[in-house]
Amino acid sequence: MARAPTLASAIAAIDRAGVLLVYPIENRSEPPSLWHRFYPGERMRWDWDESGDERVVGMWRLRERLARSRRVVYSKWFRNRATFFSRALFTAMLCELRATGRIREGLEPDALDVLAALESDSPLGAKQLRAASGLTARAFESAYQRALRELFARALIVGFGEIDEGAFPSLAIGATRTLFEDLWDEAGAMDPMEASRTIAAFLPHGSAFAKHHAKILATVRG
């Protein structure tokens, strides 16, 4: 039987791959995920009742610990799915995005409000962030979710553990510039050519992750 991942072994897997989803999409092996790194060939059942797979629950709990570790970077980057980056790849991707000089260009006003709130105070839970950005009403839910997608895509925000806000804990979200100031500064100082080489090494040409990054970069460039 495959051994359950530990914090250290999961970080090592993310560092080797550069980027991994937490759970597979429709149990496919691509794009790569932590699940398939540690349980290759085994189907994942997303059942949270008594018959559920304890490995699924265990990986969800590990996700929260990883997100707070600062040794990897957590995002909802690929199709709004839980995604982990190595610090090296995240920094290189952030470098490419910042090198355009347009990383904030074209963001919707709601996204700018969310980012401003997080640059003032990070991390925040969902209720706190909605209140800080003026998006508390139910009518603003789609605008709030769209703002998060824009900001995660451009590496301007990251997930950072969870915050207890009631019945269920919510994802704690923070500004990259605040929570990973070291990576933000490294990305600003990095040679874009070096960044491109790092990205090419981790994101094979034609892969789903490479296509997604290229699409985001093209959008930012305008």
Describe the structure.
This protein is of the alpha+beta class and 222 residues long. The chain contains eleven helices and five strands. The protein has helices at residues 7-17, 34-38, 54-69, 87-99, 109-120, 126-133, 141-153, 176-179, 181-189, 192-202, 208-221; strands spanning 19-21, 72-78, 81-86, 157-164, 169-175. Strand 2 (72-78) and strand 3 (81-86) form a beta hairpin. The radius of gyration is 17 Å and the shape is globular. The chain starts with 6 loop residues before the first helix and ends with a helix. The mean pLDDT is 94.
What's the layout of helices and strands?
Blueprint: H1 7-17, E1 19-21, H2 34-38, H3 54-69, E2 72-78, E3 81-86, H4 87-99, H5 109-120, H6 126-133, H7 141-153, E4 157-164, E5 169-175, H8 176-179, H9 181-189, H10 192-202, H11 208-221
Antiparallel strand pairs: 1-3, 2-3, 4-5
Defining key terms:
three-stranded antiparallel beta sheet, 222 residues, two-stranded antiparallel ribbon, 11 helices, 5 strands, AlkZ-rel, 14% strand, globular, alpha+beta
Concise overview:
Pfam families: AlkZ-rel (PF24741). The chain is α+β, with helices and mostly antiparallel strands and 222 residues long.
